[in-house]
Amino acid sequence: MTASNAQNLDVSAEDRLRADFYNFLGLLLAAPPDQMLLSQVTGLTGDETDLGRAIKAMSRVAKVTKPAAAEREFNALFIGLGRGELLPYASFYLTGFLNEKPLAQLRNDMAVRQITRAQNVFEPEDNIASLMEMMAGMIVGRFGAPASLEDQKAFWNKHIGPWAAHFYSDLEAAENSVFYASVGTAGRVFMEIEREAFRMTAG
Asked: 32: closest CA among 183, 186, 134, 185?
């Protein structure tokens, strides 16, 4: 789904940047990056903040990463023979099992917000890539009007905050992580920034 232009006008430049980074993480975690995406990562620059340094590190690693290597890494991390090194699902991180209560709760909240799973996606909705995409869509109004900060906070605290930083830390340290170790660092730092920003939000 796409938001109307009128709705998009209500989104601040800062929120648009937040949404862009959520989308970027979702894209990298949904499928192995092709050469075009690796080239885009290579072109990223950052400042001397923690996130800026993480982005610069990701750019350096992307520059020496070939698509075939990135695909092997992605498969080893997330697919594997039977299962990958990591299981990037809220249900698994929060309960130790797949398709548990966190997934049911997410589906209820998706229905309330009129968020539907794409027909060509068969992964459970509580995977990290989908949640990053959902947050981006809520921020810019892809599922209707842009979500208020309070609504963003409620969704994040319920479905992302309890486990995403832990997942990104695991991704940093995973045996098969090379390019994705840098993605893990950037994701973990971004989750810390979001947590602190939401903590400072009243309510």
From this structure: 183
